[in-house]
């Protein structure tokens, strides 16, 4: 898909030009394509539990855990599904959460799938458009769609666990500095939209 969320963009010398300001860099850089490079970045959250099974609360708000990708170095990333354009619920998101390898046997399988699908159908759009990525060039740039999927009833995502060898892991945020800087802003927006808290005591400056 060569369309941009930002509308029409200029073609100069047979190359697309970034619609949101120049970077001073030319070429395709580290991206797969010239022009917009689209991705879906789902923000999948659940409530953090105390040892006694109750919700962990900080500053009178429930602490959220988010599903993160730990395979890309020191920073933690949101799951990324490349090539997705203008799709609020890519099939890969459903596949990630409903794989039998990730589902607990503590609850009826069909009942759990219904609960998960119900959550996915009411995701909140956090951002759709240009992403201020350090790897953007004048001819190749990042665009994404961030949707928040949250288990507000706490009866589905707590039955989803990932094996040790998986690159994905549920995590509470002890420091926002651990989150990749490109994804951090959108994850914070999702926490605000869900009236959730993190475990961070340090403030970003």
Protein described:
- The chain has 205 residues and is an alpha+beta fold.
- The protein is built from three helices and eleven strands, in the order E-E-E-E-E-E-E-E-H-H-E-E-E-H.
- The strands form three sheets. Strands 3, 4, 7, 8, 9, 10 and 11 form a seven-stranded mixed beta sheet that branches.
- Strand 9 and strand 10 form a beta hairpin.
- It is elongated and about 65 Å long.
- The protein starts with 10 loop residues before the first strand and ends in a 12-residue tail after the last helix.
- The relative contact order is 0.24.
Which descriptors would you attach to this protein?
205 residues; alpha+beta; seven-stranded mixed beta sheet; two-stranded antiparallel sheet; 3 helices; elongated; disordered C terminus
What structural class results from the helix and strand content? alpha+beta
Helix-strand topology string? EEEEEEEEHHEEEH
Q: Treating each run of at least 4 consecutive H or I residues as one helix, how many helices?
A: 3
What kind of sheet is the major sheet? Answer: 7 strands, mixed
**Percent of residues in helical segments?**
10-25%
Query: How many beta-strand elements?
Result: 11
Rough outline: elongated
In what range is the share of β-strand residues? 15-25%
* Radius of gyration based on Cα positions: 18 Å
End-to-end separation in angstroms reads 38 Å
Mean pLDDT: 92
Sequence stretches where pLDDT stays below 50 over 5 or more residues: 201-205
List the helices and strands and how they pair.
Elements: E1 11-12, E2 15-16, E3 35-40, E4 43-47, E5 57-58, E6 61-62, E7 64-69, E8 81-82, H1 91-98, H2 109-120, E9 124-131, E10 140-150, E11 168-172, H3 181-193
Parallel strand pairs: 3-10, 4-10
Antiparallel strand pairs: 1-2, 3-8, 4-7, 5-6, 7-11, 9-10
């Amino acid at each position: 898909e060569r369309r941009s969320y930002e509308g029409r963009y200029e073609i100069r010398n047979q190359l697309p030009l970034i619609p949101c300001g120049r970077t001073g860099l030319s070429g395709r850089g580290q991206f797969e394509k010239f022009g917009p490079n689209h991705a879906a970045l789902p923000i999948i959250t659940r409530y953090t539990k105390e040892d006694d099974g109750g919700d962990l609360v900080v500053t009178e708000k429930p602490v959220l855990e988010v599903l993160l990708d730990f395979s890309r170095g020191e920073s933690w990333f949101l799951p990324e599904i490349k090539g997705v354009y203008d799709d609020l619920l890519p099939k890969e998101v459903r596949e990630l959460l409903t794989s039998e390898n990730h589902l607990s046997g503590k609850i009826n399988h069909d009942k759990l799938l219904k609960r998960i699908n119900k959550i996915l159908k009411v995701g909140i759009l956090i951002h759709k458009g240009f992403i201020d990525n350090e790897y953007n060039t004048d001819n190749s740039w990042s665009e994404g769609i961030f949707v928040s999927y949250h288990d507000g009833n706490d009866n589905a995502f707590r039955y989803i666990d990932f094996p040790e060898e998986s690159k994905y892991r549920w995590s509470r945020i002890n420091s926002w500095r651990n989150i990749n800087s490109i994804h951090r802003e959108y994850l914070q927006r999702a926490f605000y939209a869900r009236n959730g808290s993190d475990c961070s005591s340090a403030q970003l400056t």
